[in-house]
Design brief:
Blueprint (H helix, E strand, L loop, with lengths): L1 E11 L7 E6 L20 E4 L34 E4 L1 E4 H9 L2 H6 L3 E6 L6 H10 L5 E5 L5 H8 L4 E5 L5 H8 L4 H13 L3 E7 L7 H11 L4 E5 L34 E3 L1
Helix pairs in contact: 1-3, 3-4, 4-6
The structure holds iron/sulfur cluster (2 copies).
Length: 271
Amino acid sequence: MLGTVFDIKELAIHDGPGTRITVFLKGCPLRCLWCHNPEGLDAAPQLAVKQTLCVGCGTCAVPCSHPECQPYGRCLHACPNGCLSVKGERIDSDTLATRLRANADVLALLGGGITVSGGEPLMQADFVCELAEKLSGIHLALQTSGHASAETYRRVIGHFDYIMQDVKLADPQLHRRYTGVDNTRILENIRILRQSGKPFLFRVPLIPGITDTEENLRAISRIVEDAPVELLKYNPFAGAKYNTVGLTYPLPELRNRDEDFTKYFQNATIA
Ligand code: SF4
Ligand code: SF4
């Protein structure tokens, strides 16, 4: 089965227990305004252009016969400034599993494993399940928004040892306004996760003025109760990659607030 991957991060230390390799799968049904991986939103491979280095010389606009260049109408290899790349690689589960397994012994020694992230991995649920089966014996973690059918959610988390589940906004209308979808399915899947017996972690992004309000954090604390929570500070460089894939970062400049947000939760840490 083929999947689409847009990045593989080696030696990740914030993506689950121990030291890990994180695989980022392309495609996400949400559009969180603060998303710092815009190249992971679209499900298909796409052209990226480093606009800051492009001098508009037109050298890439030459006719070329490379098969990999044909979908993009430019020669990916012609740019003298190295501006052009494709975000997203179509890869079969065997090849990806073999690549990931190469360092399995080292990851085990470091108390880690492999994390599947995105984008939203549940968008490629069949591929994720097949990949997980081929990685059996390795500690597997999943990072997810939880926006999928209950059947898909249940099926995918069944293949993983550890689930990192986002909780962004408790209010359905605010969730829709800031992420593009309401949170009905997410809240249902959180209930499924709690009943699954799987080790898990809730992750709450602290977006100034959007998710870090007292009202939202108190409401989320009622959802997560005494479960472990990781509060994620806003990434001030979240907008850095938007223009490379033809998008505009939708938020103004924001600053993390200097407040102890762990006080709203029974069992929270800040990352
Ligand atoms: S060759 Fe490179 S610098 Fe020239 S127009 Fe194409 S992307 Fe821009
Ligand atoms: S769920 Fe994650 S990948 Fe998807 S838009 Fe939100 S922040 Fe980006």
